[in-house]
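Alpha-methylacyl-CoA racemase
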Amino acid sequence: MRPLEGFSVVELGMWVAAPAAATMLADWGADVIKVEAPTGDPNRYTLRHVGQDIDSAPPFETDNRGKRSVVLDLRSEDGKDALERLLERADVFVTNLRPGALERLGLAPDDIRVRHPRLVIGTLTGYGWAGAERDRAGYDVSAFWARPGIAAMLNPAGEPPPGIRPGLGDRTAAANLVAGVLAALLRRARTGEGGVVDVSLLRSGTYANGNDLALQNFFGKRGRTRPRTEHESPLYNSYQAADGRWFWLVGLEGSRHWPGVIKALGRDDLGTDERFATGKARRGHVRELIAVFDEEFAKLPLAEWAERLDAEGVWWAPVQTLAEVSADPQAEAVGAFVEQPGMGDAPPLRTVATPVGFWGVDEKPRAGAPTLGEHTDEVLGELS
């Protein structure tokens, strides 16, 4: 039995964040009804938005598997009435519409709670429900990466921010929303009352950036993001092997890992070099030490360094391409990927699993993503 079997979820969401949260709930057994406008979730057409003449939408399928799609026009009385009847039967309502849009639809959390006091309401916004900017459009790159300071910390000060891959912040916020919803369901089991779970991309981003913001708040200035050739800990830095492969040394405890690294390099002489003999000395000569490491690691391919580093108990990790991740036997072993049925007549899709596993529970998705309005008649028939 999946953990959320018997629970009913209504999702009024689009793009990634709220749909991804609802997909986790669906994977864990909940009956998730995805309410869409007649035009559908815009993420259905994600590749067309960037100019590709392709109907397939693997990102949409990943974030919407296992749901039932119902098309409702919430500007009409019939659509509003149908949604109200769905909420009456539901345990959870998940949405990422902006506060103003929900208020105009009569779906602000305080309004819903009057009509459905046992309902757990999970809202995922860009900038929250308070403040002058609560209705600003909040996408992943703006509200999670840019506004909370994460993008500014990825490169050294003065350099342009790097390109940001889509969806990382959305899925972080989605996991936060799921955690909050489950906590609210536990409270409801004790008290009989629902509640509101308020998650924003901005607050999720400031939490994710907590180390640097803690230092900023304490010292009144930002920590330094250094070029890799000047990193303050050469044992916690990236290097390139002879075959062009990059990898990271992960020697967080410098003095503990130092003997193993120089032994793997075959450079015991570095241990007696006064520039590098102690942690303090190494900190004062990072450029020189990184230059030595660069020269040494460029002599052998990564496979040989892997054997040497492992033999000496040195912590390291390859910088993998997406193709390598997809074929990584360890990722496969931890259940990082699943195969789900295709949407409509599409073939099965191999995609990412949710980040949590339950021992003894079949994690295979029960259904793929629904076509637009696929279950409208079925779900509305259940209401009569």
